[in-house]
Amino acid sequence: MFCKPGKGRQFGGIFNNAILAVGSIGFFPLQTSYLSPPNVPDMQLFFTTDIIGQRAALPADEARHCVQVLRKKPGDRVQFIDGEGGMFTGRILEVGKKSCVIAVEEEERNYQPLPAAVHLAVAPTKNISRIEWLLEKATEIGLTAFHPFFSEHSERKVLKPERLEKIALSAAKQSGRAYVPKIMPAVPFADFLEQAPVCEQRFAAYLGEGVKGSLKLNYRPGADVCLLIGPEGGFSPREAALAASKGYALVSLGPNRLRTETAALAACHTVNLINQDFHTRLDDRSL
Amino acid sequence: MFCKPGKGRQFGGIFNNAILAVGSIGFFPLQTSYLSPPNVPDMQLFFTTDIIGQRAALPADEARHCVQVLRKKPGDRVQFIDGEGGMFTGRILEVGKKSCVIAVEEEERNYQPLPAAVHLAVAPTKNISRIEWLLEKATEIGLTAFHPFFSEHSERKVLKPERLEKIALSAAKQSGRAYVPKIMPAVPFADFLEQAPVCEQRFAAYLGEGVKGSLKLNYRPGADVCLLIGPEGGFSPREAALAASKGYALVSLGPNRLRTETAALAACHTVNLINQDFHTRLDDRSL
């Protein structure tokens, strides 16, 4: 469903030729939209929530990037998202140094929603870059909301949401997603359990005795899910009892030790991989 | 199968109590081995290839870490790997500032092999940290060998293997793996295709028209596999034709754009996740 024939992007031409030459062989379009099926968003997606009727305005930083870095001009076609599932195409009406007004020509609401909500609850690692990395990758793969929590053994006690929000937005634009994962405020673990989203399935990843099976075998395709990944230092007994009382089921992610962020991404990818098929069955999309 | 009851590690005691208190609920032992099933290696695994009969010596940097950082002494129990599937347990015989001699007491060859060889071929990204991250995570999840290649559009033209080898070793020890992924020398793309490992299945990840299906649906459980992930700039027509002549089949990793390193890890995890079940069927291991 992602195709933009005739788009004069960097490698589009040679790749069309290459594919004709080699039959069904092709390669993953990582940073370009060459050979993408219909509806693929532009490589450069913008973001704004300032959309009134058929007129949209980019916020200052997005406008600056559009106008000063990419040198877009009135009449140029642009695509943007609202972060809530809206994918828009329009033409630039007028530009300033930090402003860009767009006439909306096409819009699609609820653009490629995930087949199921994926909530990921993780205690931030001591090394903040590992959490930032996790958020970027989980967003690319498919994430509804990120719920950081502080547990008794957490080494990190502060987490600033602003940078995480930028990372989630950037990764969503990068991967052509119209939904930007929500970054929930970091709260104490007990508070998270109280406020946790209502999901059909809740899992706590675990490697040890008493595991009922793998996440893969226990996750029901299409089910909204909350995935709980323990902190580097482990939960306290009080925290474990609290989680149990909220119905988190014990599952394995495989026989090996995984770091916090690896476990979290593996859990997220497992759910989304299972839902690839569910997705296909739902609306007969090609994978 | 990973359990070490009675091991006096940091959170082992309280976690055993916690689990007794909360029934089947438990959490993922990320940086500790508490509640790990039988055979789980120590949190701190060492590495050496200097093993002669029942006597092993750690290399200088490992010995230094063991003796000076962890303050291990003669008589202390240690576990180590040889990187080729050997998992050893022994007691320290004698130590120096940069030396540590161990009497081997137990050894297991071919410790937890992957159910299938997973070869990952990727063009290094411009930002080297993204490749280093990929290698760390792929090693945790399960990787046989890493094959970097330079293609015509690669922005990075140099790749030093030493640091990558350290990352692979560190991640293997961290995740309790006895096999350390081989880091192959970075070579031109055409040379990679000539030298590529013989695998039962070969895939090139792709998002676009002509995709036969997903990697998930095309991968045959237990099959040795070579996964080819395109560079940031795309392959040239000549490169695409070359790969086609080597039988790389076109598969999708899902409908969204993924960065090079995300695509590579997703492909790797997809194969290993499918093989989790294959693994179970092979030897009835619990997951």
Write the layout of secondary structure elements.
The structure is a homodimer.
Chain A lengths: L11 H11 L22 E3 L3 E2 L2 E3 L2 H10 L7 E5 L5 E10 L2 E10 L9 E5 L5 H14 L3 E6 L10 H14 L7 E2 L3 E2 H7 L5 E5 L9 H4 L6 E5 L7 H9 L3 E3 L8 H24 L4
Parallel strand pairs in A: 1-4, 7-8, 7-12, 8-9, 8-10, 11-12, 11-13
Antiparallel strand pairs in A: 2-3, 3-6, 4-5, 5-6
Helix pairs in contact in A: 3-4, 3-8
CATH class of the largest domain in chain A: Alpha Beta
Helix proportion of residues of chain A, in percent? 25-40%
Number of strands of chain A: 13
| Multimerization status | homodimer
Question: Biggest sheet of chain A: strands, sense, closure?
Answer: 7 strands, parallel
* Rg of chain A: 21 Å
Question: Under the CATH scheme, which architecture of the largest domain in chain A would be assigned?
Answer: 3-Layer(aba) Sandwich
State the low-pLDDT regions of chain A, or none.
Answer: 1-38, 281-287
Give me the secondary-structure category of chain A: alpha/beta
What is the chain-wise order of helices and strands of chain A? HEEEHEEEEHEHEEHEHEHEH
Question: Pair with the most extensive interface?
Answer: A-B, 92 and 92 residues
* Total number of helices of chain A: 8
- Domain count of chain A: the total is 3
Q: What would you call the shape of chain A?
A: elongated
* Overall average pLDDT of chain A: 81
CATH superfamily of the largest domain in chain A: SPOUT methyltransferase, trefoil knot domain
Catalytic activity (chains A, B): uridine(1498) in 16S rRNA + S-adenosyl-L-methionine = N(3)-methyluridine(1498) in 16S rRNA + S-adenosyl-L-homocysteine + H(+)
Protein name (chains A, B): Ribosomal RNA small subunit methyltransferase E
GO molecular function, one term (chains A, B): rRNA (uridine-N3-)-methyltransferase activity
Organism (chains A, B): Phaeodactylibacter luteus
